[in-house]
Amino acid sequence: MSFEVGAEVYGRFMGRYSEQLALRYLELLDPSPGQRALDVGCGPGALTAALVDRLGAGAVTAVDPSQSFVEAARTRFPEVVIEQASAEQLPFPDGTFDLAVAQLVVHFMTDPVAGIAELGRVTRPGGLISACVWDHGAGRGPLSTFWRAVTELDPSAPDESDLPGAREGHLLELFEAAGLADVRPAQLSVRSVFADFAEWWQPYTFGIGPAGEYVANLDADQRQRLADRCAQLLPPAPFTIEAMAWTAIGRA
Length: 252
Hints:
Layout: H1 7-29, E1 37-40, H2 46-55, E2 60-64, H3 67-76, E3 81-84, E4 97-103, H4 112-121, E5 123-134, H5 144-153, H6 170-177, E6 181-194, H7 197-201, H8 209-216, H9 220-233, E7 239-251
Parallel strand pairs: 1-2, 1-4, 2-3, 4-5
Antiparallel strand pairs: 5-7, 6-7
Helix pairs in contact: 1-2, 5-9
């Protein structure tokens, strides 16, 4: 599974959702000027951009394990400190930040409890820690139609419903296991409009994440059958995809 792709390519696949989600997310968290924030798993910078708008570039730090995303984010935000690092090993002293956030990252952490605990470690006592994850468990994520078609054609195929935090209540369990205090849930939703099926389907052929990896491993006939089934499941074009994310908020 790879996320070593260009920012523009990723934007066509997930950025169209994550950029909207970032704005809704910060409306919920409502960070204040003067606070220092850490964006964990920043990708090409959807949430980083929203944080910079709220707090200023000098108050924002970001990390991501993907070198291509780090380079893209550094180019986009030359005044922001952006490091290549995983959530499980953040290169910052204890209590550095007032706010640590992880948008669409927990479900790809190698050890989500350790990763969330690291967010807590680098946040000052009483500071805010939060994460959000697409609702793959109840089939309300942006990729749900794709995975429904996959499981109809290939019932043994793994989907993303069992990823950490992707089912109701699990993100809260992870936060509590990581030792965070005052943990509470929230939900966020976004919508994206597609002009036609090709606009929706092509990003799945870019090899991004579990969905892209699945498509990349199909032969030509299997890929066409999957595309045809997806087209049957989607509404007539133009159509709108609505996606919901589970959110957890806690304190260090």
